[in-house]
Amino acid sequence: MMLWFYLAIIAYALNSIAFVVDKHLLSVPVLRPISYAFWVGILSLVAVVLLPMGVYWVSFYYFLVAFVSGGMFFFGLIFLYKAIKKTDVSVASTKVGVLGVVFTYIFSVLILKDYFSNLDVFGLGFMVAGILLIGKTGKGVWREALVAGMGFGISTVLLKLTFNNSTFLNGFFWTRMGLVGVSFLVLIHPSTRKEIFSSLKNSPHSSRFIFITNKIIAGVGFGLLYVAIKLGNVSIVNALLGVQFVFIFLFALIFRNKIPGIAENLRGVIILEKIVGMIFVGIGLLMLFK
Question: Which UniProt keywords apply (predicted)?
Answer without folding.
Answer: Membrane, Transmembrane, Transmembrane helix
